[in-house]
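User: Show me a protein chain along with its predicted structure.
Assistant: Here is one chain, sequence first, then structure tokens.
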Amino acid sequence: MNRIYLGFFAENGLSMANNGSINQFIVSKVDYDKEKIVNYLQNGKKESICPKNTYDIISGKMIATFFYVLTDGEYVWKSDLPYYVDKYNIELPKNFIEKVTS
């Protein structure tokens, strides 16, 4: 099965996946249950850990001293994606939203 990468923004500087600039995904209001999505993203299965400081792409403030790569078996994301969804209203693929909320 091909896995789908979420939130690997160009500003992260990671070559494993590049979904484009975070600015392409920021919306004024999301049309999904943000709390449910954030909870789902926070509770993915940990695949790996990277002991590298993680900075908020927008503000430049450090948000963690490491990050995880998480998955649900179909989608893959970094552990900072729930932060961005909560703080900046990140638009996510409709198929992902339907999977989580149905």
